[in-house]
Amino acid sequence: MNLLTFTLLLRNAPFHACYYYCCVLYFSCSHKDRFRKDAILKLMGLTDSFTWDESPAKDCHTGKTSKGSLIPVIKNSVWKLCLFVIAFHGSYFTLQVSLGRRILSINSYYPFDWTVSPLYELVNITQFVAASVYVCTIFGFLGLYATFTCIACTQLEKLRANIYNIRQKHDTTEQDSGAETDQEEEGKVYTTQQMFCHMQKQLNDCIRHHQEILKFMWELEKTMNPMLVVQFVIILAGLCLSAFSLVTNMGDVLQMAQALLIYFGFMTEVCCICWFGDELTEEAESIRDAAWGCDWVGTPVTFQRCILFIIVAANKKFELTAGKIVGVSNNTMANIFNQTLSYLTFLIQAKDNID
Q: Taking a C-beta distance cutoff of 8 angstroms, is the pair 263, 336 a contact?
């Protein structure tokens, strides 16, 4: 392979990065069965005891948008993103053909002459179908991941609200009727054993709910971390190759537009993965503050020990990881963004020096 052929392949490498991404996600991320079906089905089974349909649009304590309200938005967004990318790719190829360019929708090497009919049409049809599968696989997995994290965040929001609702109820009773009428009525504040029993029951329910959520979260980490490390590696390669394709195709508006689309597509996926992971980490940590902020002062020692149990469990930092190598957080997203921009700047400067 000569240097010119190698350069031409690299200029269109982002498309092949999408292909390798889907292939690795399909085959390499499975242990006994493809798509890790058993692990994902187990995750779905753990959500049977969870509810999120009644979640309010806003979190009453933080004022942020409730993650439960994002679940239907994720479904609609995935479909719209898939349709947009497929429509853009189809429009790009149609425009290229209308300009008299007999090209492939995705530049590839074939051991036969694909320029003659009907091979040309058949190859492009298969490429368009494959591109549609790539897009649906990429955004479909992203939607599945985002839905699982939103379910976990919703349950943590509900748990936090239930912990804050554990309060010592204060009842006021009037003094004896023989007291002077010109005096202000005074109340007698008291707490009863029955009230403490009710508070303990509420707290026990919160502890059980917290344990179910933690079980789901750790199972989510166990299922997703091998998939996420593959995604991060392929996404990084795709971002770098997209930057290379963008620089080497300077002046060709259509090629630059497609390279930019792929670049922003990969960055959108990185942003979504890291943002949802970071939100899950923050929600898990907020349970500790909620337990400390509940009305535990003056309660029995057994109640306080249960509060301490929740705080200790919430103190163990939870973070989704990519292959136990790097945390899925906003810091990781910022590092990826900075590195790819630095690489793009380097390529532009190198091209200017060569020109």
A: no
Q: What residue has token string 């590839």?
A: 108
Q: Where are the beta strands (DSSP E) in the chain?
A: 321-322, 326-327
Q: Is residue 53 classed exposed, middle or buried when 0-12, 13-18 and 19+ CB atoms within 10 A define those classes?
A: exposed
Cα of first residue to Cα of last residue in the chain, in angstroms, is: 25
User: Does position 148 have pLDDT exceeding 80, yes or no?
Assistant: yes
Between residues 145 and 195, which one has the greater pLDDT? 145
How far is the C-alpha of 205 from the C-alpha of 173, rounded, in Å? 31
Neighbours of 352 (CB within 10 A): 9
- Helix orientation angle between 119-164 and 13-27, rounded to the nearest 10 degrees: 60
Distance CA 228, CA 221 (A): 10
**How many whole angstroms separate alpha carbon 315 and alpha carbon 208?**
17
Query: pLDDT, tens digit, for every residue of 309-319?
Result: 999 998 888 99
| Cα(1)–Cα(250) distance, integer angstroms | 24
d(CA 309, CA 343): 48
| Amino acid at site 98 | S
Longest dimension (CA), the chain: 109
Q: How distant, in Å, are the alpha carbons of 94, 137, 160, 184 from that of 107?
A: 15, 21, 53, 89
Predicted TM-score (pTM) of this structure: 0.80
State how far the Cα of 324 lies from the Cα of 13, in Å rounded to an integer: 28
Residues in the chain: 355
The pair of structure tokens assigned to 24 is 């690795």
State the average pLDDT for the chain. Answer: 79
DSSP line for 91-141: HHHHHHHHTT----SS----SS-TTSTTHHHHHHHHHHHHHHHHHHHHHHH
Helix (H, G, I), strand (E, B) or coil at 65: strand
* Measured distance CA(88)–CA(254) in Å, rounded: 11
